[in-house]
């Protein structure tokens, strides 16, 4: 896969012509996951942006409309603004494959793998990419065993969930059982991960004519150092900085592009990274294959930094809509 870094406006990827040319587009948002509220915010913004660009775009909520209705409506492409399980995990992608309707973002395989944090980390390790040590817990006693292996602090979270839902940072052994139970309410598989003390970074990746390109790296500074659901989407005190030293930013971008390629992602995605304070080593946490597009979302912020406004970003993503195996 041909991958490049994206340093500034001159290198902005160019959206394929078909983004503006062809047919009705359904913006899929809402759905049934725990991230429904955020998906509605993302999808509404994308819908308005596409319509403002002259695209014949309609709203479509799979929670209330069967996907087969897309054919009845004459939809030619789908912009997936669904987040979490049932929309970002390969299930909707598989249905659209069967319907023969091209869609934005990664295909079935990459979507399903990236949604499972444990399998993602296994693939990254196999590809020689750095990620914090982890264990998978299927029972409460396995979470306690993971604590013995990984030490304190330890992050406990559902394997297949996003937006920091069900996440606990365990700082005392007495908190481990409750943390496991909270995560297990959302997923039968729970990821126990070594806590990394350091800066939280994120880097968006967009496909362009020359292959995947990494946008500028953002450093996240959240209130009380807790980038949880509230601080991600509804707290204006969270700050997003572009003050990452150039050498570190390039290293993070390169790792993110490697992570994107290892998972066979396409179209766009966003990699989350922690930088170990002691070693300054970037460690990959997860890959989001249907990133948020709200007013607080990170991909639009990074795109603006290279001169790409929100509407152009939506058109770029839409222009990469395709089916698995398509040339």
UniProtKB/TrEMBL annotation:
The active site is at 35, 163, 297. Its main location: cytoplasm. Mg(2+) 2 binds at residues 286, 288. One of its GO terms (biological process) is cell wall organization. It comes from Candidatus Symbiobacter mobilis CR. Belongs to the D-alanine--D-alanine ligase family. It catalyses: 2 D-alanine + ATP = D-alanyl-D-alanine + ADP + phosphate + H(+). It is found in: Cytoplasm. Residues 121-319 form the ATP-grasp domain. Keywords: ATP-binding, Cell shape, Cell wall biogenesis/degradation, Cytoplasm, Ligase, Magnesium, Manganese, Metal-binding, Nucleotide-binding, Peptidoglycan synthesis. Cell wall formation. Mg(2+) 1 binds at residues 272, 286. Coiled coil: none annotated. It is an enzyme of class 6 (ligase). HAMAP family: Dala_Dala_lig. This is D-alanine--D-alanine ligase. Binds 2 magnesium or manganese ions per subunit. Its cofactor is Mg(2+); Mn(2+). GO terms for molecular function: ATP binding; D-alanine-D-alanine ligase activity; metal ion binding. PANTHER family: D-ALANINE--D-ALANINE LIGASE, D-ALANINE--D-ALANINE LIGASE B. Pathway: Cell wall biogenesis; peptidoglycan biosynthesis. Its EC number is 6.3.2.4.
């Amino acid at each position: 896969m041909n991958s490049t870094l994206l340093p500034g406006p001159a290198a902005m990827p160019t959206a394929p012509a078909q983004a503006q040319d062809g047919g009705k587009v359904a913006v899929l948002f809402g759905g049934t996951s725990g991230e429904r509220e955020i998906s509605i915010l993302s999808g509404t913004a994308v819908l308005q942006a596409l319509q403002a660009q002259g695209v014949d775009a309609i709203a479509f909520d799979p929670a209330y409309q069967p996907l087969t209705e897309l054919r009845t409506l004459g939809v030619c492409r789908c912009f997936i603004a669904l987040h979490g399980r049932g929309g970002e995990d390969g299930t909707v992608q598989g249905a659209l494959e069967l319907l023969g309707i091209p869609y934005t973002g990664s295909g079935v395989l990459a979507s399903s793998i990236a949604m499972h944090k444990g399998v993602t980390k296994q693939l990254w390790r196999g590809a020689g990419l750095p990620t914090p040590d982890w264990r998978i817990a299927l029972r409460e006693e396995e979470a306690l065993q993971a604590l013995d292996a990984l030490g304190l602090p330890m992050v406990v979270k559902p394997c297949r969930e996003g937006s920091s839902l069900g996440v606990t940072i365990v700082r005392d052994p007495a908190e481990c059982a409750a943390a496991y139970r909270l995560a297990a309410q959302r997923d039968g598989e729970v990821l126990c991960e070594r806590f990394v003390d350091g800066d939280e970074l994120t880097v968006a990746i967009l496909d362009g004519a020359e292959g995947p390109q990494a946008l500028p790296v953002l450093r996240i500074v959240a209130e009380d150092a807790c980038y949880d659901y509230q601080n991600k989407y509804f707290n204006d005190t969270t700050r997003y900085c572009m003050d990452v030293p150039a050498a570190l930013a390039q290293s993070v971008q390169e790792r993110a592009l490697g992570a994107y390629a290892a998972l066979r992602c396409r179209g766009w995605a966003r990699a989350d990274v922690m930088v170990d304070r002691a070693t300054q080593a970037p460690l990959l946490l997860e890959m989001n294959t249907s990133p948020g597009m709200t007013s607080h979302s990170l991909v639009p912020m990074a795109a603006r930094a290279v001169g790409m406004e929100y509407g152009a970003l939506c058109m770029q993503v839409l222009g990469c809509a395709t089916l698995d195996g398509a040339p």
